[in-house]
Amino acid sequence: MEPHRTVYKLVYLIFLLLAIGTRLQAQPTEQVNYNEAKVPTYVLPALLNTTANRPVRNKTTWEKQRRPEIIRLFEENVYGQMPRSYDRLTYSVTHEDANAMGGKATLNEVLIEVVNHAKSVKINLVLFVPNQPKKPVPAFLLINNRGKDNTDPTRAHKSDFWPAEMVIDSGYAIAAFHVSDLAPDDSVRYVNGVLQLYPDQLTANNGMKAIGAWAWGASRVLDYLEKDATIDTKRVALVGHSRGGKASLWAAAEDPRFAMCITNCSGNTGAALSHRRFGETISRINTTFPHWFTNNYKKFNNNEDALPLDQHMLLAAVAPRPLYATNASKDLWADPTGTFLALKQAESVYALYGLTSHLPARPPAINHPIINSPIGYHNREGEHNLTAYDWRHFIQFANLHFRHKPIRFKKEP
Ligand code: GTR
Asked: Which H or E run contains 99?
């Protein structure tokens, strides 16, 4: 054989081996279930029974006993402790434009600095407030887990992920901060942020990680908004998409000052039930994103039945505040059915407050939003994303629940 042919063969063989190796690495260790018939039989932890197995029959027992128990269960097992105290919060407006969006809004870029134990974290807030009416307005606050260009203060770049003009035209302020200011979304670098302020969290098995840090950040932004006279902080809706939607749900459950929670396509360890093991599972999420949840949560990898909780309990912790969850029809990874079933479970807690949910018995058809209900929901046609369609319905939901305005459904494009 000619020597150069042998070299070619060798090079080919090496490439082949490398390709097989990469593929093997990328292969999931566990099959993803997208088949409803293969959902195992499961028993959800009872929402309306205390851990001492006492029935919860009214909102007093719910608020005094069961709700705090549930928050502790999630702190201990899933999202980690939520430190509430810090030494100092200061802020400065780094850029103001009273004539933003062609004069419709005032832009404030605010640098919020939170200090604890001589360490600080800086949160960059982008905030547009409508120039009319001249009184405090309700607001939407987005936890931005995508590129910062999605919340461009200059508006040179516009994105349906944060359609600021649409929200301003509807009479709401719109704000956003980026998750990386609190904890970079990276399995090594996530410690460079909030966790520096609370070093004990780093070693505790129930220590917060990235998702807890993002939720903590949302509450610090609310601390700032409470000092801003243009915002009606009794009517702030917290919005998050996907991993940001897990954080918006945790933040709203944990901090009752958020008046409304919107959790968009949040899926596993967001609004979907884990016990179903449909789409993304606990072991998949903990393996791919080891920096999101507590060390304790890893105990439930392939062990969902041992969980003393499920996400219906977190949704219920938002009650009686209006709660809106979404899915996208092609996003089976986030388990639309499991999300809807979790919301249905939470209805019993809204009922303790005399609030009747109008969710149908079975998941509504695609693009059939349920707005006129303290628990709202839609399954949008399409992919995993946060879109103008989603925002239009968040605004309608807020119009109804924040302002008691009748819903005027416009024809969908
Ligand atoms: C996926 C992850 C989901 C969801 C999503 C996102 O890769 O498995 O849980 O968080 O990312 O944030 O877009």
From this structure: strand 88-99
List of E strands, 274-349: 323-328
Q: Which residues of 230-257 are buried (b: 16+ CB within 10 A; e: fewer)?
A: bbbbebbbbbbbbbbbbbbbbbbbbbeb
Active site residues: 242, 384
Give distance in angstroms: CA of 127 to centre of ligand 1. Answer: 26
Probe target for ligand 1 pocket from 333, 383, 386, 387, with the most ligand atoms within 8 Å of CB: 333
Please check the confidence at residue 13 and state whether its pLDDT lies above 60.
no
State in Å: Cα 145 to ligand 1 middle: 10
Question: What is the CATH classification number for the domain harbouring 229?
Answer: 3.40.50.1820
Give the 3-state secondary structure percentages of the chain, helix then strand then coil, rounded to 5: 40, 20, 40
Q: Which of 4-8, 106-110, 125-129, 271-275 is the least confident region?
A: 4-8
**Tally of structural domains, the chain:** 1
Q: Which residues line ligand 1 (CB under 6 A)?
A: 145, 242-243, 267-268, 280, 285
Give me the domain span that covers residue 213.
38-403
212-242: pLDDT as tens digits? 999 999 999 999 999 999 999 999 999 999 9
- Domain-located, residue 12: no
